[in-house]
Automatic annotation (TrEMBL):
This is Methyltransferase FkbM domain-containing protein. InterPro entries: FkbM_Methyltransferase (IPR053188), FkbM_mtfrase (IPR006342), SAM-dependent_MTases_sf (IPR029063). Residues 48-186 form the Methyltransferase FkbM domain. It holds the Pfam family Methyltransf_21. It comes from marine metagenome.
Length: 187
């Protein structure tokens, strides 16, 4: 699977990380939210040799790809949950790759989201299957898993960024040194 896909361009993120962390050995915790296939997590594992990487992927199909792609890297921990602003169960809109019209060879599973597509994106026509998935707040997840701070965050959650920040609470959010987030919006 890895040979067919390329990670998002992490070059600028890694460059800016150098400004805060001149020695990459000092980076100890990285969160990859909306991991899709773990390729960014794999890149981070190469650049940040001492970091524990926590990857979160809500889509069950993508989660299987994450596990397969990162199985040989012990420092990458993958969780099949939606990062959200509450703990529990939530609706998730998984892309149906057989019915979605897209140039992506895999049906663009990475466009799956906590939100239903509005149909206004002119380049693709999404067909989504509504499923229920586990949902976690990052502050409660970190408390349960002994994570006290986050050095770097990479967020590609198809519009759910504000929910993610709300679920961190101010205390945890204030520990993050660098955040890369994909933003979506309608002009």
């Amino acid at each position: 699977m890895v040979d067919k896909l390329k990670p998002e361009d992490t070059t600028k993120f890694i460059h800016y990380s150098k400004l805060k962390f001149p020695n990459f050995d000092d980076v100890s915790v990285i969160f990859d939210i909306g991991s899709r296939h773990s390729l960014e997590s794999i890149e981070f594992s190469k650049k940040f040799p001492n970091a524990n990487i926590y990857a979160f992927e809500a889509n069950p199909k993508c989660y299987r790809d994450c596990i397969e792609n990162a199985k040989s890297i012990e420092r990458i921990n993958i969780y099949n949950v939606a990062v959200n602003n509450y703990d529990g169960i939530c609706d998730f809109y998984a892309i149906n790759p057989e019915k979605t019209i897209t140039p992506w060879f895999d049906g663009n599973l990475g466009a799956s989201s906590l939100y239903k597509a509005n149909g206004k994106y002119p380049h693709e026509k999404y067909v989504q299957d509504k499923i229920e998935v586990s949902s976690v707040r990052l502050d409660s997840w970190c408390n349960a898993n002994g994570v006290k701070n986050i050095d770097l965050m990479w967020i590609d959650a198809q519009g759910a960024g504000m929910r993610i920040f709300e679920g961190m609470g101010k205390k945890l959010l204030n520990t993050v040194k660098i955040i890369q987030i994909e933003l979506e919006g309608t002009p």
